[in-house]
Amino acid sequence: MPSSFDEFPELDRQQFIRHNPAFQEKIFGRSGLLPFWVADTDFKVMPELIKALTERAELGLFGYETPTAALREAIAHWHRSRYGSEVVGKELLFTPSVNTSIAIIISELSKAGEGVIVQPPVYSAFMSTIKKLGRQVVYNPLIATEHGYRMDFDDLEKQAARPENKIMILCSPHNPTGRVWRPEELQQVCDICARHDVLLISDEIHLDIVYPPHQFTATLGIYAPLGENVVMVSSAGKSFGIPGLVSSYLFTPSRSIRTTVQKFIQRYHLDKSNAFSNTAIATVYRQGSEWLNSMIAYLQGNINFVDDFLHSELPAVRFRPPEGTYQLWLDMRSLGLDNQQLSTFLAEDAGLALNPGYSYGPGGDGFARMNIASPRNLIRQGMEQLAAAVKRRSGNV
Predict the structure, then answer these.
(1) For the chain, where are the alpha helices, taking DSSP H only?
(2) Distances (CA, A) of 373 to 7, 97, 120
(3) I need a surface site. Which of 67, 113, 273, 316 has the fewest CB within 10 A?
(4) 376 in a domain, yes or no?
(5) Domain check: are 367 and 305 in the same one?
(6) pLDDT at residue 74, as a whole number
(7) Within-domain flag for 362
(8) Of 225, 242, 216, which is closest to residue 373 (Cα–Cα)?
(9) Do 359 and 225 belong together in one domain?
(10) pLDDT the model gives residue 369
(11) What's the structural domain count of the chain?
(12) Domain interval for residue 148
């Protein structure tokens, strides 16, 4: 029986960045590409959300709003019930995006020239934000093994011990490699950061997209016995396909950090929420478990499809099935192309918009990130276009 996630209704999608011709032209040099790049979904949102937003619109009143106690408790209950994370609703802070939250924390809790540790290959906005704020990007590269990526704790210890390195950004689950960090791995990260007084920012925007038997572990709970020098940043946007609708939130057990961040938010008037954002957050966190589980199952089906397709039709391209996120980290090194050649090949020959691996820092050369949060027919079309392009290039046509 067809799933609702198979639906791809005919409509003008040009307002969506991943489909927008101008953005594709700017990033990839041409438009009309199958868009598997921006990390949002092509799925229609849960019916309960559509109903709630419609009812809210029909009230016809749209004055200034603020996050209510009930909304805050909905967020706190979601984290507490699913992950055992003691997020205190009344102490949550809200910003327009997770990237905004990270930028504020770095800006207010470090100085120009100081270092921020990241673990590449990792979400490229981390590096660009750090640089734009006049801080130094400090690499603690992940180690690629035949069993998947792992952290280099010896190097992390060295980087954290340097007095100029004040902050670490942990991507959990990790984008783009799809790793879901185990409790013992998080324990080592927290121990190292606490030992060297490095503020730990845990970006958990992908926390809900985890494939069984893997389980997400909240960094806050691991860090709790060690102190309060930690901040969790997250959003309902990725999990429920609404990044263009909702704001983000952050929580820290530290009153000092919370006060510092809150002052910045208020100084620049970043705390203005709206009716639809508030309604959406409360609705998905109160009613979204069943729909979310269905989406994860569908995404797992997409992963299985790509895995089977590559094994049978395109063994030159490999990937390790992700433990979390809806990103595939495709290894295309066997094609023998440098970074520019690979980018050109994917866009011009295969007609695909994929994020180039090198943009994620050291360890990304020869890779590409593919978003598989789309109907399976689109995923199939993308794989067929990639296979045909590889065969044309090798002369096997």
Answers:
(1) 21-28, 47-59, 69-83, 98-109, 124-132, 153-161, 183-195, 219-223, 237-240, 255-267, 275-287, 289-313, 339-344, 376-394
(2) 12, 20, 23
(3) 113
(4) yes
(5) yes
(6) 97
(7) yes
(8) 242
(9) no
(10) 98
(11) 2
(12) 64-286
